[in-house]
Design goal:
The chain has 434 residues and is an alpha/beta fold. It folds into 2 domains: 100 residues, Urease, subunit C, domain 1 (Roll); 309 residues, TIM Barrel. 29% of the residues lie in helices and 21% in strands. The protein is built from 12 helices and 20 strands. Strand 14, helix 7 and strand 15 form a beta-alpha-beta unit. The protein is globular, with a radius of gyration of 20 Å. Bound molecules: N-carbamoyl-L-aspartate (NCD) and zinc ion (ZN) (2 copies). One zinc ion (ZN) binds next to loops.
């Protein structure tokens, strides 16, 4: 365990107040202001030129434990999260065994607690074994010590409309939310691996049309309206999805959505070299879609940024493109990507970034322990970001066990300088502090 030192963080641009200093005592923000005194016995953290954000909350992380500890463990995934400025992550249910029981959910929460680098909240499966046939123990998971509120078959779409309707009805009882991996399995089957369009034709890769996502989003917002329940759209990736979300929200339908760092920045064209690192579900999209999701994030139509951090072992990724596993890393570069694509070009303020990465994801998950922002009295979950450095990403520097990092060799502006979880410094100077 890291020590419970008290800190005075000085000279930062503190999101929300614009003030300079944050006094951290006993795990809480004791005071925010300018020119605060350094009480004795307190470590001073010089944050001159850094931005102070509330700890990031990731609604969509794959930690792979149990079952694929060769790709990631709760420990290594938590380390990558801390290095990325996260203080809470939601661990997707597509592990082996699947998180579809109260015991499985409690076990993940416990392992996360034991590591202690980030709060690990299990996502519960919607259907048993993600098989799409019968509902999992949603109520038992909700009432368990893990207090599951987010349910998803992510990796698979809940394709049966009747099951989706029942899941939405069920989670209403405890104010839960169903996160949908929107992929109509007939319009985009398991072999579909490249955005359907000019590039898929040229490369001879099976196409994954945007409409396979959009029809499910359209259906599910109608089911949310019908049931009066909450649906959340995972990894929204197309302009058509944005149109549906905008329309549904204008009607007051309780729908929220997330976008990944990769769908904010990386284009379909990257597939031209057939490098499987760029193989992901949903696929990388063309420039028009990227522009649409950027605009939607900036105007709040897309509520949150979520990483869909999806580590894969080399022997699952290093295949011909068509045979490689879907998914890419995301935790460690998420904030730098947001800075590069949205903040630097003047499309989002840091306050908006804090909404999209902390306050809104916490609200969507009904997480009350985080997401409250940087205010006196709140738990000291703080991320310090240095916007001035320019980084060429090196996948070998990752805290993740896996190396399927799509940003490898890319130049990103800015880097996480330090992360504090309830006043404990979990990451600083490139090192994770257990
Ligand atoms: N995104 C991916 O391409 N893969 C994810 C599953 C998912 O998020 O759909 C994985 O578990 O590897
Ligand atoms: Zn998914
Ligand atoms: Zn996922």
């Amino acid at each position: 365990m890291a020590s419970t030192t008290d800190y005075l963080i000085t000279g930062a641009d503190v999101v929300g107040s614009g003030a300079a200093d944050i006094l951290v005592r006993d795990g809480r923000i004791a005071e925010i202001g300018t020119g605060l005194d350094v009480p004795s016995g307190i470590e001073r953290v010089d944050a001159d030129g850094l931005v102070a954000l509330p700890g990031l909350v990731d609604l969509h992380t794959h930690l792979r434990e149990p079952g694929r500890e060769d790709a990631e463990t709760i420990r290594t995934g938590s380390a990558a999260a801390a290095a990325g400025g996260f203080t809470a992550v939601f661990a997707m249910a597509n592990t082996n065994p699947v998180t579809d029981t109260a015991e499985a959910a409690e076990r993940i929460a416990e392992l996360g607690e034991r590591v202690g680098l980030v709060d690990v909240h299990p996502v519960g499966a919607v259907t048993k074994s993600l098989a799409g046939e019968e509902l999992a123990e949603l109520g038992l998971m909700a009432r368990s010590r893990a207090q599951v509120r987010v349910f998803s078959d992510d990796g698979k779409c809940v394709h049966d409309a009747r099951l989706m309707r029942r899941a939405l009805e069920y989670v209403k009882a405890f104010d839960g939310v169903v996160t949908q991996h929107a992929q109509d399995p007939l319009l985009a089957d398991g072999s579909a691996c490249c955005h359907e369009g000019e590039v898929s034709g040229r490369l001879g890769l099976p196409g994954w049309p945007g409409v396979a996502e959009e029809v499910i989003v359209a259906r599910d917002v109608m089911l949310a309206r019908h049931t009066g329940s909450r649906v959340h759209i995972a990894h929204a990736s197309t302009a058509g999805t944005v149109e549906v979300l905008r329309w549904a929200k204008s009607l007051g339908i309780d729908v929220t959505a997330e976008v990944t760092p990769h769908h904010l920045m990386l284009e379909t064209d990257l597939l031209a070299g057939y490098d499987p690192v760029f193989k992901v579900n949903p696929p990388l999209r063309p420039a028009e879609d990227i522009e649409a999701v950027r605009e939607a994030l900036a105007d709040g139509t897309i509520d949150a940024v979520a990483t869909d951090h999806a580590p894969h072992a080399r022997h699952d990724k290093e295949h011909a493109f068509a045979d490689a596993a879907f998914g890419m890393l995301g935790l460690e570069q998420a904030l730098a990507v947001l800075h590069t694509t949205m903040v630097e070009p003047g499309r989002m303020t840091w306050a908006q970034v804090a909404e999209a990465t902390s306050a809104r994801p916490a609200r969507i998950a009904r997480l009350t322990s985080q997401g409250g922002g940087l205010v006196a009295g709140a738990p000291a979950n703080i991320t310090l970001f240095d916007p001035a450095v320019t980084n060429v990403v090196d996948r070998e520097e990752s805290k993740s066990l896996s190396r399927n990092n799509p940003w490898h060799g890319h130049t990103l502006k800015g880097a996480v300088a330090a992360t504090f979880l309830r006043g404990r410094r979990t990451f600083a100077n490139g090192e994770v502090h257990q």
